[in-house]
Design goal:
This protein is of the alpha+beta class. It folds into two domains: 59 residues, 434 Repressor (Amino-terminal Domain), CATH 1.10.260; 124 residues, Umud Fragment, subunit A. Helix content is 23%, strand content 34%. It has a nine-stranded mixed beta sheet, with no helix packed on it. The longest helix is centred in the first third of the chain and has 11 residues. The chain starts with a helix and ends with a strand.
Length: 210
């Protein structure tokens, strides 16, 4: 599907008229009409704003996703019939006052998962997981408070700590938070300090985005 078709489809799904969309964007209705007829295209910043208004993503509007019908047979078996769902993108996960706080709203991004309410995307910060995961990548995280040995998780150490992506390793009575980047040191947590370790979720996939 072309941008013009996807734009019209998403706008109608949200029950927004061309005039209403134009007003929200500060453009003329004629401009929206030209976009939907394929006679012109908005700039990338406007595409992002349209996506926000219509509750979708710029990638979706630009046709940069693959619907289920385009999956190869192995992918179809792996993903099953899970539909594309919009998952919130957040900037930070923090611990404090006995609960996890999800901060910095970066909108939404599509993922094909069974139970979308139990997932979030986290924007990766820093270089400790390079070269496999780069600063600015998106990590798809399943919300859970336990991890298996060797899992890649979003972990928070300390009551005021901020979430970090590390490999979770159990060594005897201690837990090791291991970075991929050999220039960064691993963190060994043991004894009472384990009470300061919070698990926010398990990373199921990462992708370059930002």
């Amino acid at each position: 599907m072309s941008f013009s078709e996807l734009l019209r489809q998403c706008r109608k799904k949200q029950h927004i008229s061309q005039a209403e969309l134009a007003a929200k964007l500060g453009v003329t209705q004629q401009a929206v009409g030209k976009w939907e007829s394929g006679r012109s295209s908005p700039d990338p910043a406007t595409v992002a704003r349209i996506a926000e208004i219509l509750g979708t993503t710029a990638d979706y509007l630009l046709g940069l996703y693959r619907p289920l019908t385009h999956l190869s047979e192995p992918e179809n078996r792996f993903f099953g019939a899970y539909a594309e769902s919009l998952i919130p993108v957040i900037g930070t996960v923090k611990a404090g006052y006995g609960a996890l706080a999800f901060e910095e709203d970066y909108g939404q991004e599509y993922a094909r998962v069974k139970d979308p309410d139990n997932y979030f995307y986290l924007v990766v910060r820093g270089h400790s997981m390079e070269p496999r995961i780069q600063d600015g990548d998106l990590a798809l995280v399943h919300r859970q408070d336990t991890l298996e040995n060797g899992d890649l998780g979003v972990l928070i150490y300390g009551d005021e700590g901020e979430g970090t992506i590390k490999r979770y390793l159990q060594r005897g009575n201690s837990v090791v938070l291991q970075p991929f980047n050999p220039e960064y040191s691993e963190l060994v947590i043991k004894g009472e300090d384990l009470n300061q370790l919070h698990i926010a979720g398990r990373v199921v996939e990462t992708k370059a985005k930002w």
